[in-house]
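I have been asked to look over a protein record a colleague put together. This is what I was given:
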Amino acid sequence: MSTLPAVRGTLTPNRPMSDLSWLRTGGPAEWLFQPADLADLQHFLANTDTKTNILPVGVCSNIIIRDGGVRGIVIRLGRAFAGIEVLTGNRVKVGAAALDAHVARNAAEAGIDLAFLRTIPGTVGGAVKMNAGCYGVYVADVCESIDIVTRFGTFQTLSGAEAQFTYRHSNLPEGAIIVAATLKGTPGDPAKIAQKMELALEKRAATQPVKDRSCGSTFRNPAGFSSTGKADDVHDLKAWKLIEDAGMKGATLGGAQMSPMHANFLVNTGDATSADLENLGELVRKKVYESSGITLEWEILREGDPA
């Protein structure tokens, strides 16, 4: 790797990633960069060889970091990117490092309903990138604009429409790092929004293994098919049902398990490696295909090299 530019933030070589990972697995990052602020991030990207691999992460709530670690540079945005500002017109401007749950609570206190974010683990940057959603509401429904820094260090603001959101996906420029987003909710009574969030949390706790080390839904719900036979954006067919029908609910491999509570949750029971988790996921995909003829697609990202 070519010489890296001087920074005001923190640049750490061979930084272990397991303690930063939601699943508590994975090898080290060749370099971990934690920028001091927006200008520091822009300077770093503008002066880093564009051939260098860059991986932006939040709290790694939707990533398996493989056991061999990550080549290149992992960028983790910190407190300078975690602001939450209430704007007029039922909008909030939030930094990419702000936790989804914190955004939902702050918005609720201001009488803005973004309650669906309350049960989504992780940060706003990841939620925007993956068009996160639950209970029928997605980031695409509330995203007014997105601030990014391109791989060349330039700052840009994109409209929600320009992100071209689809199911669990956004079409942002290659290598772009999300630094903030403006979200527009619906007006509501703060107490009623708070109650709505509590009910959602109770529902989640009753149906999902919220106390286990999991990244949430492991596989995307398969797309439906229109009358023309083309895949559409209807997801009535559920991944968990396909996994159950294939006999893989509760299946284990090493320290990894498909949760006995929710078949589409891949869990670290305590001593799993990233290889255990990924290999069990691939075994589930194989068994589901043999059972139904449907190939499940990973919702969880897998990054880095095997051990």
The CA atoms of residues 27 and 69 lie 4 Å apart. The longest strand covers residues 177-184. Residues 274-292 form the longest helix (19 residues).
